[in-house]
Design a protein that fits this description.
single chain, alpha+beta, 35% strand, elongated
């Protein structure tokens, strides 16, 4: 089975990827993988509209999270939440 990952959106340390799997019989399965600093493990979503909505909500939650704001202010490693140069 081959797998193809495509980045759909990325903002504030939150990533939404489309993961497509093609079986030996040619059947294709597509899911969306949502990951970010606030999530302990990636969230898998089957519906694209739901995945985009979940991405938007997670970005808002990440930007509103006081603990993550403190980490950014202290110059923590990783992608800056604001998306600017770090």
């Amino acid at each position: 089975m081959s797998t193809r990952k495509t980045l759909v959106r990325s903002e504030a340390g939150v990533r939404l990827e489309r993961v497509e799997q093609l079986s030996a019989r040619g059947k294709q399965q597509s899911q969306f993988r949502l990951s970010g600093r606030r999530l302990r493990s990636p969230r898998w979503i089957e519906n694209e509209r739901e995945a985009l909505d979940a991405f938007d909500l997670e970005v808002i939650a990440t930007l509103s999270d006081p603990a993550l704001q403190r980490l950014e202010a202290e110059g923590s490693e990783g992608e800056p939440l604001s998306g600017g140069p770090g």
